[in-house]
């Protein structure tokens, strides 16, 4: 077993594709495949399950990759200490539902990083892939919400994936609308008042289920609906129409501007926004730093939101 083989396996896990990993490693796909097969034969385990649809990380592979990452990180520390290097490339990845505050904390993390080299990944994606990204160690953490509607399903997935959910904050559902929307001057909005306006939601692909919906309320009998796949498109539609979506109530003015506002929905439902991580993987220093930034900015935004509502 060599350090190169460990780096190969980690890159494949990060890419989720043998072909893509080979391109990034600047080697041929057959050479990469042979190197992994030799490693699997030596260890007597299957690291990657191969199917017609591609590859996935096996249960043994998840455990192995956790150790492999620790070895590579320790190797880089030794190289920096004894090869005279003062800097090393830092790796960090987060998969998340479409939250502006997650992006804002990510921007602050970039500004605070005092290293010459880093490889950061921010994946705004669908709910089920978030869980898969963290389970397969493609991402260090995932950010999503749970509530009474999806609690049982989500916790089953967390348990099956050996993941731990840590709460960030609790909130009630808010409608996100433009400042010139007919409902913009209301202190609260009733569910029935939303029915005449276009409801804009994020599509969930093949895992299209209420349990995986990013929107925290189920709006029934809505005759006008629009599905989008990214936050920029949703923002443009909200600014250009009388459409609405459901969110946390937290807005980041640096990213959203002041043309979008949030209004509480009259409901008894509450949701918990939090982050998931693999139970067998100790959070790195950069991960802990990002979580601290999240907590700091959420605390400030919730304070501002509560002051606005009082």
UniProtKB/TrEMBL annotation:
InterPro entries given in the database record: LysR_HTH_N, LysR_subst-bd, WH-like_DNA-bd_sf, WH_DNA-bd_sf
Pfam families hit by this protein: HTH_1, LysR_substrate
Stored CDD domains: PBP2_LTTR_substrate (cd05466)
Keywords (A to Z) from UniProt: DNA-binding, Transcription, Transcription regulation
Ranges of residues in domain HTH lysR-type: 1-58
Source taxon at top rank: Bacteria
Family: Belongs to the LysR transcriptional regulatory family.
Name of this protein: LysR family transcriptional regulator
